Amino acid sequence: MNRYIAAMVTSPFEPLRPGERRRRFRAIPVRTLLPNLITLLALCAGLTGVRLAIEGKLEWAVAAIVFAAMLDGIDGRVARMLKGTSRFGAELDSLADFFNFGVAPALILYFWSGGLNQLGNAGWIVAMVFAICAGLRLARFNVMIDDPNRPAWAGNFFVGMPAPGGAIAVLLPIYLTFLGMPAFSLLAPLVFIYTLAIAILMVSRLPVFSGKRVGKRVAPEMVLPLFVLVVAFFGLLIAYPWVVLATGTVLYLGSLPFGVLAYRKHQLADAATTPAQAATVSLPGTAAATPPAAPPDEPERPARLN
Question: pTM, whole model, 2 decimals?
Answer without folding.
Answer: 0.76
